Amino acid sequence: xxxxxxxxxxxxxxxxxxxxxxxLGGLIGIERELARKPAGFRTLMIVAGTSSLLMSLxxxxxxxxxxxxxxxxxxxxxxxxxxxxxxxxxxxxIIRHRAGEHIEGLTTSAVILAAASIGISVxxxxxxxxxxxxxxxxxxxxxxxTVENFLxxxxxxxxx
Length: 160
Prior knowledge:
By secondary structure, the protein is mainly α.
């Protein structure tokens, strides 16, 4: 039973990282909920938090392998696995309508990837970077929606 609580400080650190990543992902998720997009608050919280957890576990695995002299574990492969999994989820959010050139879900897909990278950043203790990316992502989503709407209106006008 003791082995489950071994290195409890590290496990608490990983839990804190999960919570921080989930909160940052949730901030972006709130904007997605307000915009009525398919991947919203809870989804992005889980994506960011889980990415943080997977990265933390990958780092622990690499540290354990190094401690016993094994050199076959590369933590960067954990990032690759996370990105592959997120790519699968993102593919499900993109919809191309047969009639016309209209494609939906690209921004949602990009936001899911951003939430995953925020989680990875938190797990790697790059908190300033994670917060900065969260803020920049929110600025892009909120502030630039106005620009996008303006361009859409301008493009819908008849040409001279």
